[in-house]
Design a protein that fits this description.
This protein has 376 residues and is of the alpha/beta class. The chain has 13 helices and 17 strands. Helix content is 38%, strand content 22%.
């Protein structure tokens, strides 16, 4: 379309697909949670003969929230001004609840609106955003605590063989097993690649400090994610300030509103901040978090959702890297054509496809549908 031509959002469609995990016994686990499936909530926004898509990961109830609280607020909005629609959505859900489910629902719609805008303009999404980069470095992420040692070592060494120079495993579910697991991984990947560990908030403060020192000294761990709960700002700060040099403490994947990220940066409580574009208010929300991280001179790392994050985080000045998550890669490859593969340890958005460059594979996704109906 020609820039400057008014076009209104005509309709919003919502779908949800629940995909079983492929872990041992049908499940996967980390330091604090076990799950058997991953649910994608997919939003379509239509205008001017184009359809934008956005998504988040959560309970299927997020889809119902989009339909009941957001769709009417977006219909008739300027399709070329996603931030204006974002403001209307967040204002409208004040009493329904902004953090958590509300922010995730807004994120999915906001991403769909940005994808729609880029498609209307005939440009890849990262070119529509104020991009500082044209590629996003990644780290391989999986290594669930219920993996047997051979699968754990094979998964992480497989990423290294693909040219990804940094990998992460889950820890602290059964701390006494972690030395054996870390040794198997370090032997499999060699001394060169960076090794990350993620406790998912499983440890108490003093235990986290103890393991931070062991992780760094014995296995060369460089990144300790959520050693204590993200709600424990004091505990995060303790591990950050008194942990070993060379090991960074990080959190932020469960940030929903801007204050969540400001709290982590005050003090500060983290060495590197994380944000999930499918939770923090979508691309519009992420731009606000990116500004905050730049102001505090702190790098920002992308949590999961690689198909969106590869575009969105090109617009993050203090970009560190993107979590190339085993679960999310599986689901996105099932649901979409046009997903990206890492090259030289990074995802590079396609410059020749409009928007996110994705097309929904309805036939493949349909068996997993738990909400909505297939478009005509």
């Amino acid at each position: 379309m020609r820039p400057g031509v008014d076009v209104e959002v005509e309709s919003v469609g919502v779908h949800a697909f629940e995909v079983p995990t492929d872990g041992p016994g049908g499940g996967e686990e980390d330091g604090t949670l076990r799950w058997n499936s991953t649910t994608m909530i997919l939003v379509e926004a239509r205008a001017g003969g184009r359809t934008g898509i956005g998504y988040t990961y959560g309970d299927a109830s997020v889809a119902a929230f989009v339909e009941s609280a957001l769709a009417s607020a977006v219909r008739g909005a300027d399709a070329l001004a996603p931030p204006a629609a974002w403001e209307r959505m967040f204002t409208g859900i004040r009493n329904a609840g902004r953090p958590g489910l509300g922010a995730m629902a807004v994120s999915a719609v906001d991403i769909a609106l940005w994808d729609l805008k880029a498609r209307l303009l005939g440009l890849p999404l990262f070119r529509v955003l104020p991009a500082f980069h044209d590629r996003v470095p990644v780290y391989g992420s999986g290594g669930f605590t219920n993996y047997p040692l051979d699968r754990l070592a094979a998964q992480l060494s497989g990423w290294v063989e693909q040219g990804i120079p940094r990998v992460k495993l889950k820890v602290s579910r059964r701390p006494d097993e972690d030395p054996r697991r870390l040794s198997a991984v370090r032997e499999a990947i060699g001394d060169g690649p960076e090794l990350f560990a993620d406790a998912n908030g499983a440890l108490a403060r003093k235990d986290a400090l103890y393991w931070a020192r062991r992780f760094a000294e014995e296995w060369g761990v460089r990144w300790f994610e959520e050693p204590v709960s993200s709600d424990d700002i004091v505990g995060l700060r303790l591990v950050r300030d008194h942990g070993p040099g060379g090991l960074e403490v990080t959190a932020g994947e469960y940030g929903f509103v801007l204050k969540d990220f400001a709290d982590l940066l005050d003090g500060p409580a983290v060495d590197c901040l994380q944000a999930d574009v499918t939770r923090c208010g979508g691309i519009t929300g992420l731009m606000q978090v990116a500004g905050l991280s730049a102001a505090r001179q702190t790098d920002l790392s992308a949590h999961c959702a690689p198909a969106v994050s590869a575009h969105a985080f090109c617009a993050v000045k203090r970009l560190r890297h993107l979590e190339y998550s085993h679960d999310h890669v599986r689901v996105e490859r099932l649901v979409f054509d046009g997903t990206l593969n890492p090259v030289d340890g990074a995802l590079r958005p396609a410059a020749d496809r409009p928007g996110l460059g994705l097309a929904v594979r309805w036939d493949d996704a349909e068996p997993y549908r738990v909400h909505g109906r297939r478009p005509d």
